[in-house]
Each structure stands twice: as structure tokens, then as C-alpha cells.
Design a protein that fits this description.
alpha+beta; 4-stranded antiparallel β-sheet; 9 strands; 27% strand
Length: 281
């Protein structure tokens, strides 16, 4: 049975369960209470009939375990000791308690006797807009924006990317190999020059062939820029002399003249001695 009540924000729904004890003296509350968010149990009504000897002791417990703690969230005891069997009907107004706190229920008998025709019914209420997203008409509802799913693509699985990576790896490998060969050639040239030049006592140094060989070995390792000619052009003298002219060094001029005269006399004396010897013969 359901009932409805209006409020300024939303409509609260009131209801009651079917007989929880109809299958037997134990029941699972998740099969009894509607699974609405925010549902609260606010009452319980039970009824049963006892079959017993009036002189026997008998206590009947109607109870629900606490689903979130030890013990019971509801438990009531009926003492039938010294009483004949009969039917009992009780109802309880309970503080609003979240339905998720209500654990499994049962009717437990202590003593001698039995229970027939049990009935346990729970009353509850819930707010349909306890979760505003449950209904677009609820206050506070927010429109859901669907984010398109973008499929993930691993770039390492793209054949074009793999081909480019392999090509680049090959280029790098070739560059490393070229560098290795260049360093190996440089090492060989260095060793050859050292063996050829030695410590300066190698007689082959004076050989033109050895010189050409050394230059050939050396030129193999020269960078291309080494052969590029220097840029031509006119280099203008920028030195400015004090006075504007350079005076002749008279002493140096006289010394040079004296050296020329002495040189001429030596030549004349050599040629003169030779002529006298010829005449004597």
C-alpha cells in the first residue's frame, strides 16, 4: 500500500511492505523493502498466534539485525510463560531510520511452544528526489552532458609512424658508422705521420717523395673549408706618420755605400790576380 504527500520541494511517498513472514519465521530485508535512495522505515506492525501448554515457559522475539553494527535495530519480546496460546497484534511507531540499516528479520522462540500465522509489516517513506538526478523534474537536477568517447590510438601501432621511426634509426646508425670510420681514419693518419716524421732523424724527411706523402696523408683529413681561398681585396695602410714623411737614415746610407765599395774592391782584386797570373804564363 502506498500513499503520497506533497511538499514545497517534492512529493514524499509513504508505503508499507507485504507480509515479511509469509515464507517463514526468517526473512531478508533487501527482498522486503523497496530499494529507493533515502527510504526510511518509520513503523512496524506484527501479529502471530502461539500454540503452547499454559504451564510451559515461552518467550517470542520479533527482531531485525542492525545491518551496519552489532546487535539489533529492532527487537521486542513477548513473554507467554504460564499463559495459554493466543493471538497477539502489536504496532510500533519508529523514528525515521534509513532502510539500509535494517538487517535480516526473524521471529525467535525461547522455551516450549510454536508460532503460527505470523505477519510482519513495515511502513516507510521516501523522497523520489532524494537523488536530484533520479528525475529531470527534481529540484537541483543537472543536465547530463555526454562526453563523446575518443578511441585511443597507440602511435606505436601506426605503420607510418613505425616506418618513420625505423628510417630515422637507420639514419642515426649510418651517421654513427660514418663517425666511427672518420675517427678510425684520423687515428691511422696520425699513426702514419708519427711513424714518418719520428723524432727528426728519419732520413726520408729530406726526400721530396716523403714530403709529398706526408702532405697527401695530411690533406686527406683536412676539412673542405681548409681549401677555400681567403677573400681577396685591398688592404689599405692605416698607419699615419708624425710629420708626414720618413727621413733617410744617412748613417745607414753611408754604411751601405762603404760596403758596396769594399765589395767592389774585393771583386777587382780577385779578377786582377787572375789576369796577372795569365800574363805570367
Amino acid at each position: 500500500m502506498l500513499a503520497y504527500s506533497s511538499s514545497s520541494y517534492s512529493e514524499e511517498v509513504f508505503g508499507s511492505t507485504q507480509n515479511a513472514a509469509s515464507p517463514g519465521l526468517t526473512w531478508v530485508m533487501t527482498n522486503i523493502l523497496p530499494q529507493f535512495a533515502g527510504l526510511e522505515v518509520n513503523g512496524l506492525v506484527y501479529q502471530y498466534t502461539t500454540v503452547k501448554d499454559p504451564d510451559s515457559d515461552m518467550i517470542v522475539y520479533v527482531q531485525n539485525e542492525n545491518a551496519q553494527s552489532d546487535g539489533y535495530i529492532f527487537r521486542n519480546a513477548d513473554d507467554w510463560s504460564g499463559l495459554p496460546g493466543n493471538t497477539i497484534n502489536k504496532s510500533f511507531a519508529l523514528p525515521n531510520t534509513l532502510g539500509e540499516m535494517w538487517g535480516n528479520g526473524s521471529i525467535e522462540i525461547a522455551g516450549e511452544g510454536s508460532v503460527i500465522d505470523p505477519s510482519v509489516i513495515y511502513t516507510y517513506k521516501y523522497d523520489p528526489c532524494f537523488d536530484p538526478q533520479s528525475d529531470p523534474s527534481c529540484p537541483g537536477y543537472e543536465e547530463i552532458v555526454e562526453v563523446p568517447e575518443i578511441p585511443f590510438s597507440d602511435p606505436l601501432e601506426d605503420q607510418l609512424v613505425l616506418d618513420e621511426l625505423n628510417r630515422q634509426a637507420k639514419i642515426d646508425q649510418e651517421a654513427e658508422e660514418e663517425d666511427r670510420r672518420r675517427r678510425q681514419k684520423e687515428s691511422k693518419i696520425k699513426d702514419a705521420l708519427e711513424n714518418l716524421l719520428g723524432d727528426g732523424s728519419n732520413p726520408e724527411l729530406i726526400s721530396a717523395d716523403a714530403e709529398r706523402m706526408a702532405m697527401a696523408l695530411f690533406s686527406i683529413n683536412l676539412p673542405v673549408d681548409y681549401y677555400n681561398p681567403l677573400e681577396g681585396g685591398e688592404y689599405v695602410e692605416t698607419v699615419i706618420l708624425d710629420g708626414g714623411t720618413i727621413q733617410d737614415n744617412k748613417k745607414a746610407r753611408r754604411a751601405n755605400f762603404a760596403q758596396q765599395v769594399l765589395h767592389q774592391e774585393m771583386v777587382d782584386s780577385q779578377y786582377g790576380s787572375g789576369a796577372s797570373a795569365q800574363q805570367e804564363k
